[in-house]
């Protein structure tokens, strides 16, 4: 399989300066830049159209790290037909401008719309005039929905996994609880901490909260039950959550985490029919994918905006992934993700 | 209505020394004591039987503070017929022995069975020979289920609201995330902090997590939606969670919170049919009450143990409260709680 994988694995990262970026709420990121990757041949992307992929909260432009089975030549995101473009989202900590690159703590608040808008200069820079697929899950799905509202180029299919058009009060509440956990760690200091001296205990606690919302009752019961095999006197599920917290702290900055949670909270496309009408101007087909066991962005939320978009005139349809895995299924159930991306269902 | 309320409101608290209390896991609480109240006439309770009420995680023996509409003369828990006995649970911080009364941090781990067992000397002390109702919700419901396994006196009805017979991995996970949030506050110090110098930020974050699991998507959306009316730039739901955190910190000790979460995690009656069989020895009727929107202890969990108990020979039936309020409905939907306690459904 190395023949299939090499073109993807060898894709280098690039940095694009996008100038002073003005946010939706009136802030400015001076001399902003985007770290991005193009999986496949840029000339082909210019000639035949590209695909655009948005990552989730703690993801990155390294799409092969989290969607490996669906990206590459011949795969659902077929890089030999439509090269894939992915950028590290603005506000994240994997190369694009974010709150950890602005030392004085003045990094402005970001919205999901801002995260989409930051890709406009990238598409222009690469000379992309058509998008075959625009897709992402969770926060990436929210950004994809925002892209549908502003895309300057035609889009064949917008495929949104496990994302709301409007963040619910409960979803905001989960993020609020995570903010409280991060703030409970005095190393947070309102985000003004030196690099590598961040609120590791607070971020780990936040991650633990999030991990529960990413999975399901059924999966946790099947996988962990009430077993205590990893550490004496500790349930395995607690060991798992603590381990996930520790792992995130090693690879992610709390400031970026907080900034991107804010973007998630901001998610609101406004009136659904109007958003559907606007999206239909340049997007041929919209697919909203709910996950039956998702307790973060419930499937009926996805179905709801799909129906609203359709009423507004978008060619929108709803698909559902049935799985024990909950919200994270878009990163696990690759067979389902693949068939949906291929348009086979 | 003051005539109805006065007998309850005037009930004084009493302290009962229960000697050295040996926990299920082999620990000892030296010179343990229970703070309790009897709502109504003890002589009547001896002659006609009492009711026994267990409070939830941050509740207390002051039942009128959280179940006011259902306790009193003529009410569902009719104190003029069967006086109500309620004790502050062992491990809590409202007068009974708990981790904040043992200065060296040696307070042992507690199980839900321990919390039930601590009531044995209380019943003996009061001379109670029959219980008309044994009831509680959430942690109180778990303790009620444990009581069914060990009650030395006959029980007419065991009414368990929103409680599992076996804490799920997800329920344990919510508590684990709360422990992580508390530990993220360095004031926690493994529970060895001076009085009033506890991990207030950590406990507030834990409370925020818990509050989300106590309510529902629908209620939060109806009540808060995406409004920002309380504080500029902050969603009302976040204001609400922060306020609840601050309020809990003023009235509850983090050590007790952690101790009682541990008791919740311990909840496991073992084989359901065997537990039902054992419960049936002294309990005439078992009513398990699920809440349709409960995301902490799902209604199908309650239905599951009811069915298991019934297979084991208990006279057990399932009732469901339909409500937008989620888990907390047993503290809100008093009409439903009342009719269930009265046995009218």
List keywords for this structure.
alpha/beta; homodimer; disordered N terminus; globular; Rossmann fold; two-stranded parallel ribbon; eight-stranded mixed beta sheet; 13 helices; 2 domains; Rna Polymerase Sigma Factor, Chain: A; 345 residues
The helix count of chain A comes to: 13
| Spatial ordering of strands, largest sheet of chain A | 1-2-6-3-7-8-9-10
| Strand residues, percent of chain A | 15-25%
* Name given to the CATH homologous superfamily of the largest domain in chain A: Alpha/Beta hydrolase fold, catalytic domain
- Give helix % range of chain A: 25-40%
Q: Return the CATH architecture of the largest domain in chain A.
A: 3-Layer(aba) Sandwich
Number of strands of chain A: 10
In total, the number of domains of chain A comes to: 2
Question: What's the level 1 CATH class of the largest domain in chain A?
Answer: Alpha Beta
Indicate the CATH topology of the largest domain in chain A: Rossmann fold
Q: Rounded to an integer, what's the Rg of chain A over CA atoms?
A: 19 Å
Shape of chain A from CA axes?
globular
Order of helices and strands of chain A: HEEHEEEEHHEHEHHHHHHEHEH
Show unreliable segments of chain A. 1-7
Question: What does this protein structure show overall?
Answer:
2 copies of one chain form a homodimer. Chain A is of the alpha/beta class. Chain A has 2 domains: 2-168 and 268-341, Rossmann fold; 170-264, Orthogonal Bundle (Rna Polymerase Sigma Factor, Chain: A). Helices cover 39% and strands 19% of the residues of chain A. In chain A, the strands form 2 sheets. In chain A, strands 1-2-6-3-7-8-9-10 form an 8-stranded mixed β-sheet, with helices on both faces. In chain A, strands 4-5 form a two-stranded parallel sheet. In chain A, helix 5 links the parallel strand 7 and strand 8. In chain A, helix 6 packs antiparallel against helix 7. The longest helix of chain A has 16 residues, at 236-251. Residues 1-7 of chain A have low confidence and may be disordered. At the A-B interface, helix 6, helix 7, helix 8 and helix 9 of A face helix 7, helix 8, helix 9 and helix 10 of B.
